[in-house]
Fold this protein.
Amino acid sequence: MVGLGPAGRDWLTPQAMAVLAAADDIVGYAPYVDRLPRNPRQQRHGSDNRAEAQRAEFALDLALRGRRVAVVSSGDPGVFAMASVVLEAAAGDERFADVPVDVVPGITAAQAVASQAGAPLGHDYVVLSLSDRLKPWEVIARRLEAAAAGDFAIAIYNPASASRRQQLADARELLLAHRDPGTPVVVGRAVGTSEQSVTVTTLDGLDPDQVDMQWLINVGSSQTRILRGGTVITPRRYPD
Ligand code: SAH
């Protein structure tokens, strides 16, 4: 399982590059596979983003036949991505008992977005997906409230999709019940690509109607500040 980082080659680790170059097969969600340069020696298997369990089994079957397979994810493969799916599939079937599986990390979206705004995740923070496709909204709401009450900065993944439009508005309301409306918020979209945009706003100023699936939102804690010039930091020192 190989993490591609948030965008192109500049964000790919040398380790990931070497593993990708050595692969016989590249398996993954089609837009991620398409990010990689073609190599005539390699077979590419792009798929739909829902067929995760089948994709894992397909990759393990190829590996069983002696192929060197790279299952690619954007960002880090262990963060809302394929690593746990493949490891679970490998452990769940005796046939795959001897297939060696390695996880090659990547730069995750929360860090990529944070880096473009300063250091909004400079102290304790929570990583949370707003997608209720794989977990119920009640669980998401409970975790958001706990993170807000605990005064963590919060990195929000999967804030919306074409059909999921309400989650960010609901999340913002939940957070505003615990946090100052002026809390700094960093919105990163398509970071690392030519379409990158990074906006610094506040919880109050965050407009959920504009959200799309390429957003990653870093919400500050009570200590997060916007410095002169718009740089956002969460100080390392917590007040006594
Ligand atoms: N494994 C990935 C996350 C996959 S979930 C990682 O570690 O980054 C998909 C979500 O990641 C998107 O909805 C978005 O919230 C975020 N994301 C992925 N790439 C991004 C990018 N280039 N810019 C901003 N957010 C991104």
Summary: The chain has a mean pLDDT of 96.
